[in-house]
Structure formats: C-alpha cells, structure tokens
Amino acid sequence: MAMNNRITRIFNRLLLGLLAGYCLAACSGETEKSAVLFPMDSLITSQIKYLTEAKATVQKTAILGNAVDRRTLTPPDSTPLAVFRELEAINKPINRDAYIIDDGLTDVRSNLKVKVFTAKVDEDEGGSWIQSNPFPITSLRIYYRDVPKNIRRIEAAVQEENSLFTSARHFLLEFQEIHGTIVLTSYAITGGQKMYLGDTVRYSVKGSITLPN
Fold first, then answer.
1. So what's the pLDDT on residue 28?
2. Domain range spanning residue 201?
3. Which 3 state secondary structure label does DSSP give 171?
4. How far is CA 141 from CA 12, 99, 113, 116, in A?
5. C-alpha dihedral (84, 203, 55, 181), degrees to nearest 10
6. Beta pairing partners, 157
7. pTM for this structure?
C-alpha cells in the first residue's frame, strides 16, 4: 500500500506539472485568436462529460521504473485525460504556420484515413536540424474512418528540453463508435524524463475504458 501511494504521489506531481505547463501556455495567449487546427480541448471536455455521465469504468495501470500501480476507477478519473489538453497548444496563433499538414493519407495497417501535423524544422548555423516553432509538439496524427469526425485514434509526439531536464512522451487516444457516438475506449501516455546529472526515469499511464451494458 505504501508503495502504491508513493507511485500515485509521483504521478500526480508529474501530471500536475504537465497541466501547469499547459495552463501557462494557454493563459499567455488567451486573448489571441486563430483558426483551430484541431479542437483537442473540446474533444477532451466532451469525452470526460460523456464517460462520467455513462458511469464508465477505467482499468488504469501506472508504471514508474519497476514499480506498478493498478486500480479501477468509477466514474473515470479525469486527471489523466486532462493531460491531453496539452495538445491544444497546436492551435495557438504562433503555430499557424509552424506545421506541415497532410490530410487524406491512407494508413496501410488499418485502411483508415490520416491527417498529419508535422512540425517544420530549420537548419541552424552548425548544420543541425531544429524545430522552428517553440512548442514541444513535434507531430500529431489523427486517424479517422471516411470523414474527419469519425475519429478512431490520435497519436502525438512531444519532446522538451531546458536547463533542468530533457523529456520525450508519446500520447495515444483510441476511439470506437458505440450506438452512434464516438467514444474514447483507451488511452496511454508513455515516456521518459532525464534530469541533468541524473538518471532517466521511464513511466507510463494506460487506461482501458468499459461502458456498462
């Protein structure tokens, strides 16, 4: 029990840190207007509302290094889902021309269509390629069936580096159509964080969502 509580506290600090970073980015540009590249914030809000009202059950597994914490949540704990709001940063005005956008691509593994946002890169004076926009979202992939509103999967890659740490994370959301409604059925956040002069800490949070019969 003590180990589970320790894992939970560490994950809460990690997730709160991610949320704080998102809030700072959002608040700094709250008065700016721009076209929405993808409505991540409203999507997460609607899914949290739907799953809560439907009394969904979440089988959640958190792994930090070699420690594992498993638990069942009813109604779903919205904190892990709220972390995905970080991807809303792609809609900030400064990102209007920061991504190469390809739509209507075919995913050969599933025959789904894919809309891909890839961060542009520039060559610096040393000949290295660097991301041209200041936000850490390096790619966002939206998988859908036939038309964009029929979402089936969202994947995103996030990389950050500052004077204290470097980190890389992969976000995954998977959806199914249930009784005519697009419903989130699983999610995952996996990655690692390395403090300078320290070891790399690897972690993951995965959730499987079940609706009552």
1. 40
2. 2-210
3. strand
4. 27, 12, 10, 5
5. 50
6. 139, 170
7. 0.78
